[in-house]
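Consider the tokenized backbone below.
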């Protein structure tokens, strides 16, 4: 089968926020997939952007700003925070977003995750150094806790928030019915999707083929009762998600 039709007739459920799903959906459709969209969250600015901007301005003297997502970069860029110091990206897409804003970010060589960032040489001997993590509300605390344990002075600047979107169990069940793969971007998204399911939808989800962003979410999915195949892209990017699906679904 040609690359242009590598996913012909396959049904793929994309759960990303609507604006961030566009490029991946186009890539999937270009290869013949039937794309179903069920955005689980909307991404919005924090309720007090002036306070977030002030926190960024006051952190200009930090050794580095660590950006946990493309959203963190894009929403920080909307704030009147002046020039940014050395930046660190959690993954390739975040690095591209930083480069588009004139930064020369550091990023992990392969493990695009909090654990990968924590392994960077710059973040090993950080006792007494000030670090700022630019992130969303209610984000993971692993990075901050680990860096504090190494002696760093760590602040978290929340520049965006994730707002759960309501979907009826009927809508969720229809999206999952006869689906060949479900794309998830976080463990939080998986938990949200499960919370939206009635018994019938949950049975479908727990047997579905899931594409997840990290080994941590693989383990979380198993703990939550997901028994179907779990696919892990090489990195968190549209191209990597697409390649992962082609490898698993191409007939």
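A designed sequence for it:
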């Amino acid at each position: 089968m040609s690359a242009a039709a590598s996913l012909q007739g396959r049904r793929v459920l994309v759960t990303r926020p609507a604006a961030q799903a566009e490029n991946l959906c186009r890539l999937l459709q270009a290869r013949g997939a039937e794309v179903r969209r069920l955005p689980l969250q909307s991404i919005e600015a924090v309720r007090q952007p002036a306070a977030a901007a002030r926190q960024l301005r006051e952190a200009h003297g930090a050794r580095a700003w660590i950006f946990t997502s493309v959203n963190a970069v894009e929403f920080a860029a909307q704030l009147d925070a002046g020039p940014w110091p050395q930046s660190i990206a959690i993954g390739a897409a975040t690095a591209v977003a930083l480069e588009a804003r004139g930064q020369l970010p550091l990023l992990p060589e392969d493990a695009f995750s909090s654990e990968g960032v924590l392994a960077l040489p710059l973040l090993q001997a950080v006792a007494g150094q000030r670090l700022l993590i630019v992130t969303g509300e209610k984000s993971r605390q692993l990075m901050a806790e680990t860096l504090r344990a190494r002696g760093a002075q760590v602040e978290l600047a929340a520049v965006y928030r994730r707002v759960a979107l309501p979907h009826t169990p009927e809508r969720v069940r229809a999206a999952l019915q006869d689906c060949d793969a479900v794309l998830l971007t976080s463990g939080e998204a998986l938990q949200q999707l499960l919370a939206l399911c009635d018994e019938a939808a949950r049975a479908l989800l727990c047997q579905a083929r899931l594409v997840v962003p990290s080994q941590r979410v693989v383990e979380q999915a198993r703990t939550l009762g997901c028994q179907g195949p779990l696919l892990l892209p090489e990195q968190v990017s549209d191209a990597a998600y697409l390649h992962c699906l082609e490898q698993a679904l191409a007939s």
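The chain is about 40% helix and 20% strand.
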